[in-house]
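Lecture notes, structural biology module. Today: joint structure prediction for complexes of two components.
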Amino acid sequence: MTEVNQELDARNLNCPLPILRAKKTLNGMESGQVVKIMATDPGSVKDFEAFANQTGNELLESTEVGNEFHFLLKKS
Amino acid sequence: MEFEHYQKIALYGFILAAIFGAIANRTNFCTMGAVSDWVNMGALTRLKVWLLAMGIALIGTQTMHATGTIDVSGSIYLSTNFTWLGYIIGGFLFGIGMTIGSGCGQKTLVRVGGGNLKSLVVLMVMGITAYMTLRGLLALLRLQINDPTALDLSERGLTTQGIPEILSMWTGLSSSMLAIVLTILIGGGSILYALKDAGIRKSFDNMLSGVGIGLLIASSWYVTGVLGYDDFEPVPLEGISFISPVGNTVSYLMTYTGSVINFGIAVVFGMIAGSFLYSILTGTFRFESFNDQSDLVHHLWGGVLMGFGGVMALGCTIGQGVTGMSTLALGSLVAALSIVAGCAFALKMQYYLYDEQGWWHAFKATIGDMMPSRQKSA
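The predicted structure, tokenised, for the full assembly:
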């Protein structure tokens, strides 16, 4: 089980707000720390894949839980 | 059933738009997303897809224009009434609207087809506001901005606001030769720039949306310009566009017994239908609605800003950004850049507002980021 250092509730936010908030949250974290993001926007799945690819922060997990999408991002 | 000439053209528009809607739904083609990827993560892939579409539409349209198949100089984009302030203000407001309204006019139609009820509200508000800006109360504001500032290019000896003709006046070179050079430079350059990226070349979806949408836009000129030509009842020359057509669709539905369908209205229905069919066939249709009051308020403002801004700027991300650009109109370039600037501004504001230090703080930080000398990724 990955240790989660911070949680970000991005439920009910529309594109591109989940990404914007994740970026802001990561800015305040240290390298190697993990943030768990909970979102409801279906577009966030592709967005977080692209975000991880582009920024080098590792997407450890991307899962669909009921009507929500959960992501684990590790700060590079 | 025998179709009238104008009905046939509307049907062709519907078919082109249905393909557009299905492609955009599948590939997540989104100009706001493209600007967001660029501003927020420095990722250019989606912007390159958009450039690929624009480049293909430009080359296709200019080839038809140069060979005499169509004459785009009769389109609204190339009017000698150069409403520069309208392009800038309208484009900028449109860019803000599409950011807070979950996507531009094209994306809104695709989302409606996919079951998004928020986008249905945006669509209705956008349509009413667009019509108010065309013919209603807001038209007064539009004229107050445009009338005193518009430049009449015909007084300067020009017959269009095409970039080739303007450059021709300055350089003395032939306008048609400059059109070819610009088509190769801008169109060919955009395509090469996009295709240099393996992320575009090797992705079926990216190629499908870039090439497909570019070809659909060029085809839309062919539909109204060639198939629509008739000695007795020619249809107006137009390409795929979304804001005025959404306004006209609202009016059409309310005055149905006294109205006739046209290309633009059919395009609106086609986009929704194509996206709807695609989402049903792939099992991705899903109802979405507002989460809370602030979500509703954002989307209402998004619709208002896009309806007003889109009419002021004579088009949206597709109408000016791709269709208008394919005519090489100067106003389309100004409007498209203003839309991108408005979108980037709103994205930055959203980012800094999250600090909860108020609007003024967010505004100062946003302006600081957007100044060229201090351009940086926050």
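Point to remember: The two ends of chain B are 60 Å apart (CA to CA).
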